[in-house]
Amino acid sequence: MSATLNKPRATARDFFRLPEGTLAQLIDAEVIMSPAPKTFHQQIIQNLSITLGTYIRKKKAGKLFTSPIDVYFSENEVYQPDALFMAKENLSKIKDWGIEGAPDLVIEVLSVSTAYYDLTH
Length: 121
Fold this sequence. Notes:
3 helices, 9 strands
């Protein structure tokens, strides 16, 4: 006889109760914790942020955000990309708790520790 273990399913409401700044994502109703990014990873995001941020500000094209920022897709899916861009015509998707719906651009620097989720979700 085989037993199936049922993992507790989480919702976006559960996810948003996590302490502010928690590095985690809600993927298929499962809270997936992420380790802090390595220094090289952080340098890549910082360089992209400076370069893209300068361009976006000059062009008044929208807003750039870096992690941790929550992107809500559904009750079972909340992601924290490394960086994202919201075009000025979509700024209404920006809420005080994060982004509601798809950003105009998502940037994800592949890390060994999160590669499976980054490539499959």
